[in-house]
Amino acid sequence: MPGCDVRPAPVNRVLRAAELTAIGAGRRLYRGEIIGPEATVNTILCHAHALEEGELQALQQIGERSFGICARAGVLYQQAADLLAELQ
User: Fold this and answer.
1) Which of 8, 33, 46, 62 has the most crowded CB, counting CB atoms within 10 A?
2) Considering only CA atoms, which of 87, 76, 74, 85 is closest in space to residue 26?
C-alpha cells in the first residue's frame, strides 16, 4: 500500500510541571547514589520512599509509569551531563 511506510511527525509539547519534577527526582536520586546508571523505571519506583514531598505529589499527578519514565530520563540526562563535564 502506498504511504504505509510514512511515519507521523513527532509531536512536540511543553513538559508539565509534574514531569519536570520527576526528571529532577531522577537526577537527584542518581546524584545521591540512591539509584545507579542502570536504573529502570521499576527500579526508580521501588525507591518512592526516598522521594521528597513535591516529588510524591508529582507521582500522584502523573501516575507511576509516567513518573518513572520521566525520572529515568532525568538519570540519562545527568549521566550525559557528567560525561560532558569529564570531556571538558
Assistant:
1) 62
2) 74
